[in-house]
C-alpha cells in the first residue's frame, strides 16, 4: 500500500495526534503518502450539554466508522478514551501507539493554589467523582470544548480551575510557563479514564498488518485490559468509571473504579482479560 486516507477531528489536538500517528506509520513505511481528511463530529458541535445527556463517547467516533465503511477514508485516528464501548461491525483497532502520560492535571491560573479553587470545570463524571474526594471544598461545573476553548474559559474567570489530561497538554506543548499553575494528579488519587493517553487507528481488518507496524505491544496489553473492563461493566460516559493497567515485568496490575467502588488485582499479562473479568464482576456484585 502506498497511500492512506486518514480521518481526524478538526481540533488542533486531534490534528497533532494524527500527525504523531502518521509519523509513526512513516517510520515503518518511509514511502507512504497520506491524505488527511478532517471532519467535525456531532460531539464537537454540541457543547452546551454533557456527553451523557446527548449520547455517548461514540459521538466522536461513529461518524468516522461510517466514513470507513463507505470507503471515504481508510483509517481514523482517535484518542482511545473517546472510543464507544463497542465499535462498528467489520472494523477494529489496527494500530495502537505507545501510551503517553495517563495522568490528569488540575490547571489553574498562575499563582493560584488548589485550596483557593471553589469551582472546577470538567465534563467527566469520573473526574467529578475523584474531585469530590481530593478537593471536597470545590464544586464541579460543566465545561465542554477543545483544550484551547477550555483554557480560555479558565483565564476569563469562568472557573477557578479545570481538569485536563496531561497527555493532551504535553502534545500541544502547553506548560506552566504559558501562565498556568499545574497540580499533576497521581493515579492513586485520580484514577485515569480507561485508555487515557493512548492514540489508536481504526480501520478494516485487512489493514491490520500494514498499520499495525506502528503498534506498541506493551500499550496494546493495557489497552485491551482497560477496554475489557468498560465493556464488561457496560460503562459508557454516563457512568463514573475508570480502569488503569500497568505492566510490572511479566505481570499486569489493573485498578478499576465504578461509582464509589474500587478494586484492583495483579495477574500474568497473558491473563489480562481474565483479570478484567474478575474485577468487573466484583464491582457489579
Contiguous helical run count:
10
Main sheet strand line-up: 2-1-3-10-4
Give helix and strand order, one letter per element, not per position. EHEHHHEEEEHEHEHEEHHEEEH
Helix and strand content put the structural class at alpha/beta
Topology:
Elements: E1 3-9, H1 12-28, E2 33-39, H2 42-45, H3 51-54, H4 62-69, E3 75-79, E4 92-96, E5 104-109, E6 119-121, H5 125-134, E7 139-141, H6 147-155, E8 161-165, H7 166-172, E9 180-185, E10 199-203, H8 208-211, H9 217-233, E11 241-248, E12 251-258, E13 261-268, H10 272-284
Parallel strand pairs: 1-2, 1-3, 6-7, 6-8
Antiparallel strand pairs: 3-10, 4-10, 5-8, 5-9, 11-12, 12-13
What would you say this structure looks like, in words?
With 285 residues, the protein is α/β, with parallel strands linked by helices. Helix content is 33%, strand content 27%. It contains 10 helices and 13 strands. The protein has a 5-stranded mixed β-sheet with strand order 2-1-3-10-4, with helices on both faces. A hairpin with a 2-residue loop joins β11 and β12. The chain is globular. The chain starts with a strand and ends with a helix. 44% of the residues are buried. The mean pLDDT is 92.
Amino acid at each position: 500500500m502506498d497511500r492512506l486516507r486518514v480521518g481526524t477531528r478538526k481540533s488542533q489536538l486531534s490534528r497533532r495526534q494524527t500527525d504523531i500517528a502518521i509519523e509513526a506509520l512513516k517510520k515503518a513505511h518511509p514511502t507512504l503518502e497520506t491524505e488527511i481528511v478532517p471532519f467535525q463530529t456531532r460531539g464537537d458541535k454540541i457543547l452546551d450539554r454533557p456527553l451523557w445527556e446527548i449520547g455517548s463517547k461514540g459521538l466522536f467516533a461513529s461518524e468516522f466508522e461510517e466514513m470507513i465503511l463507505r470507503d471515504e477514508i481508510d483509517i481514523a485516528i482517535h484518542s482511545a478514551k473517546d472510543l464507544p464501548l463497542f465499535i462498528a461491525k467489520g472494523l477494529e483497532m489496527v494500530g495502537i501507539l505507545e501510551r503517553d502520560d495517563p495522568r490528569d492535571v488540575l490547571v489553574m491560573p498562575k499563582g493560584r493554589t488548589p485550596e483557593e479553587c471553589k469551582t472546577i470545570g470538567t465534563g467527566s463524571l469520573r473526574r467529578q467523582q475523584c474531585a469530590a474526594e481530593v478537593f471536597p471544598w470545590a464544586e464541579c461545573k460543566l465545561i465542554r470544548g477543545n483544550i484551547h476553548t477550555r483554557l480560555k474559559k479558565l483565564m476569563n474567570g469562568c472557573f477557578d480551575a479545570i481538569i485536563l489530561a496531561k497527555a493532551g497538554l504535553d502534545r500541544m506543548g502547553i506548560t506552566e510557563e504559558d501562565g498556568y499553575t499545574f497540580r499533576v494528579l497521581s493515579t492513586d488519587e485520580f484514577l485515569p479514564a480507561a485508555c487515557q493517553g493512548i492514540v489508536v487507528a481504526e480501520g478494516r481488518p485487512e489493514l491490520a498488518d500494514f498499520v499495525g507496524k506502528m503498534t506498541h505491544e506493551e500499550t496494546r496489553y493495557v489497552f485491551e485490559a482497560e477496554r475489557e473492563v468498560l465493556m464488561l461493566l457496560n460503562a459508557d460516559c454516563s457512568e463514573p468509571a475508570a480502569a488503569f493497567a500497568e505492566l510490572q515485568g511479566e505481570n499486569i496490575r489493573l485498578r478499576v473504579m465504578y461509582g464509589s467502588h474500587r478494586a484492583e488485582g495483579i495477574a500474568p499479562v497473558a491473563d489480562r482479560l481474565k483479570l478484567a473479568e474478575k474485577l468487573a464482576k466484583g464491582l457489579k456484585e
